[in-house]
Amino acid sequence: MSSGSNSEPPRSRPPRRPVMRVASDPLGSARALAPVIREAAPAIERDRRVPLDLIDALRDAGLFHMLIPRALGGAEVDPVLAAQVVEEIAAADASTGWVVMLAMQSNAFAGFMDEPSALEVWGNGGIIAGTARPIGRAVAVESPEEHGYLVSGRWPFASGSSHADWFLAECMVYDGDVLRQDAQGNDVSRMLLVPREDVTILDTWNTTGLRGTASNDFTVDGVYVPHARGLSMQTLEPRQTWALYSTPPIAFVNHGSHALGVARASLEAAVELISQKRGWGDVPLREVPRMQAIVAEATAEIEAARAFLYGAARELWTAATSDGATPVQRSRARLAASHAMTASLRVVDSLHRALGTTAIVSGTTLDRCFRDLHTASAHVMVGPLTYEAAGRVELGLDAAFPLF
């Protein structure tokens, strides 16, 4: 990541929507938009952002707000279906799939805020960017008229910063210069939502892959935010009764479905190249046994990982909406998401290596998928720590890892 400039890169703010768009057929909408997204993919990578007309199309289809509860005007889309939507979009372009996925996860915070504050942020179709890291500073402001904080700090990895309306700024809470502590002696933090006009975006997102996500740093300098426009990540007490809020592991299934979408795209691109190219001795590559085996193995990897991912997710969601999920059901959904990432990396790596110099040409689908997926795999929620946590659960121990 570069050191960054001191001002927001040129970008007009997306128009506010008068109402939240509700997805009536999210999977159908994703498939209908896929050709448009695929055509835009090279420009998305080049410009390091998803164009606003495409953001508008995704927002109009309701794909950013699938996980908003009905009580707040949302569609309450089945989270397993929402994950399949992410897969379809990621298969067209990994960066676009990523910003939809992260916005959906952030939108789930709506269920932890009071209704007026949640509607202020999401009621007009607001899109969220930000980072769940308590590295900012929130100085308490208490008076008969005000109950809130003066927020300052700098946060990295705000995916979708080029089009977001609101930014999540997690802070440590201070009373003057003294760090606040709760009754148990723990330092107190709070996630606060800051409107775009009060944020400075730093042009820092220069990366190996997922270049179009605009996951830039942002800063806030002494902005007042009311207490109600936020939530405590330490307690996360839901105000909505939808099962999503008692089952946080279901939200991370999206990371696995995103990875599968990128793996699908790489396999489709490889099959097309293998069908067209000829190898040594002018033999068509599609007739070379080694290529046939690689394609078969890649297909099996994707299908097996998809079956585990959606099977574990469906079992978890069914349990969550009936008698309640067990620790193993919760853990296996997280494990399946990490496994989908691992399997997808094997697919992309094997295809990239098999096609040799063809795959290393900048701008090709295989090159982009290889870089995008390796970048996505760096996310902690599908990293090695989730395997360790899932293994602990299988052995009858606590996960000792967040959101299991």
**Alpha-carbon Rg, integer:** 22 Å
CATH architecture classification name of the largest domain: Up-down Bundle
Low-confidence stretches: 1-6
Q: How would you sum up the global shape?
A: globular
CATH-level-4 superfamily name of the largest domain = Butyryl-CoA Dehydrogenase, subunit A, domain 3
Stated plainly, the CATH topology of the largest domain is called Butyryl-CoA Dehydrogenase, subunit A, domain 3
Put simply, the count of helices is 10
Straight-line N-to-C gap: 30 Å
Q: How helical, in percent, are the residues?
A: 40-55%
Give helix and strand order, one letter per element, not per position.
HHHHHEEEEEEEEHHHHH
Explain briefly what this protein structure is:
Helix content is 43%, strand content 15%. By secondary structure, the chain is of the alpha+beta class.
